[in-house]
Design brief:
By secondary structure, this protein is of the alpha/beta class. It contains twelve helices and twelve strands. Bound molecules: 1,4-dihydronicotinamide adenine dinucleotide (NAI).
């Protein structure tokens, strides 16, 4: 059975080939992302394997179905880029990797926070230039600060536990409370309250109609002046124009983003020799108090191993007409 990978990178090939020994699938790795521009080129394949910025809308799904594709395997947790309703109508099965390493993403969110609050990115460059001055590197303690977590699911919960370990007060907003987290010391509050009392905010909810532009001019207005905002979830949670305005006003003192609304044109590519046409990301990167990473929060050996194993196992089960044991991998 053939699996066609889109947005494939050398590291995808490395990990998927390693675990394919047990299955013997015919693997086709395409660098291009999946979208209307390329879907007609799909041939003789039963499964497509896609990532966060592949566009799997109704138009794409209709062509995939007509070409005999039966399975859409997301090698990620989030699925906002797939039209599930269309997949259902066209009879395609859609699976994902619901939990490959919440710790990988949570730890990256903490890494971004620690970089911003202690300015280690600046210290690293400075010391290499033999500049041992501390001017401009003044940070702040995390201990005792209030950390607001929006979306305390698997990643949010892992993040909460790390922050509790730092001696922070952790307050979460979620549509469903997690009792285990409450017994570890996390308190829950309404969104407005979390925004109002937090020194640091970290976003870990999915992107959907309700959370789109959750961070906007009005919600930023509720935040403490000088707040630190971290987003490792999805770019569309933030209205970037409003955040840039808040950075200029110093309402937001530090911003760490691993995701960006227009990231599909930029992230996962080496554009070091190109002219970037996106003025918004250029503006963001011009701030000394903004840290941008290119959707790397998931990117650990542990997570890539898990992603490859779970994806291949799901495709194998579905190919045999069986349901994967872990029901959470199935979206349709
Ligand atoms: P999860 O499903 O375990 O947790 C999501 C939580 O958000 C749940 O507790 C849910 O109740 C809550 N939630 C849903 N709607 C909400 C709303 N309107 N307001 C507040 N909370 C809401 O998902 P998980 O694994 O923790 O992942 C969270 C997100 O992280 C994913 O949706 C994905 O977008 C992002 N992600 C980013 C990665 C990266 O590399 N940067 C890698 C993996 C995931």
């Amino acid at each position: 059975m053939k699996i066609t990978f889109f947005s494939a990178k050398p590291y995808d090939k490395q990990f998927f080939d390693q675990y394919n020994d047990a299955y013997g699938f015919d693997m086709e790795y395409l660098e291009t992302h999946l979208g209307p521009h390329i879907v007609n080129a799909v041939e003789d394949t039963k499964a497509v394997c896609v990532f966060v910025n592949d566009k799997v809308n109704e138009e794409v799904i209709a062509v995939l179905a007509a070409k005999g594709v039966k399975i859409i395997a997301l090698r990620c947790a989030g699925f906002n880029n797939v039209d599930l309703e269309a997949a259902r109508r066209y009879g395609l099965r859609v699976c994902r990797v619901p939990e490959y390493s919440p710790q990988a993403v949570a730890e990256h969110a903490v890494a971004m926070l620690l970089t911003l609050n202690r300015k280690t990115h600046k210290a690293y460059n400075r010391v290499r230039e033999q500049n041992f001055s501390l001017n401009g590197l003044l940070g702040f303690n995390l201990y005792g600060r209030t950390v607001g977590v929006i979306g305390a699911g698997k990643i949010g919960a892992a993040f909460c536990k790390i922050m509790l370990g730092f001696g922070c007060k952790v307050v979460a907003y979620d549509i469903a409370a997690n009792e285990e987290l409450q017994s570890s010391g996390v308190t829950y509050a309404a969104l407005d309250e979390v925004l109002r009392i937090s020194d640091i905010l970290s976003l870990h909810c999915p992107l959907n109609e309700k959370t789109h532009y959750l961070i906007n001019q009005a919600t930023i207005g509720l935040m403490k002046k000088g707040v630190t905002l971290i987003n490792t979830s999805r770019g569309g949670l933030i209205n970037t124009t409003d955040v840039i305005h808040a950075l200029k006003q110093k309402q937001i003192a530090y911003l760490g983003i691993d995701v960006y609304e227009q990231e599909e044109k930029l992230f996962f590519k080496d554009l070091s020799g190109s002219i970037i046409e996106d003025d918004t990301i250029q503006r963001l990167m011009s701030f000394p108090n903004v840290l941008v990473t290119a959707h790397q929060a998931f990117f650990t050996e542990d997570a890539l191993s898990e992603i490859a194993q779970v994806t291949l196992h799901s495709v194998d089960s579905l190919g045999k007409g069986e349901a994967p044991e872990n029901a959470a991998v199935m979206l349709i």
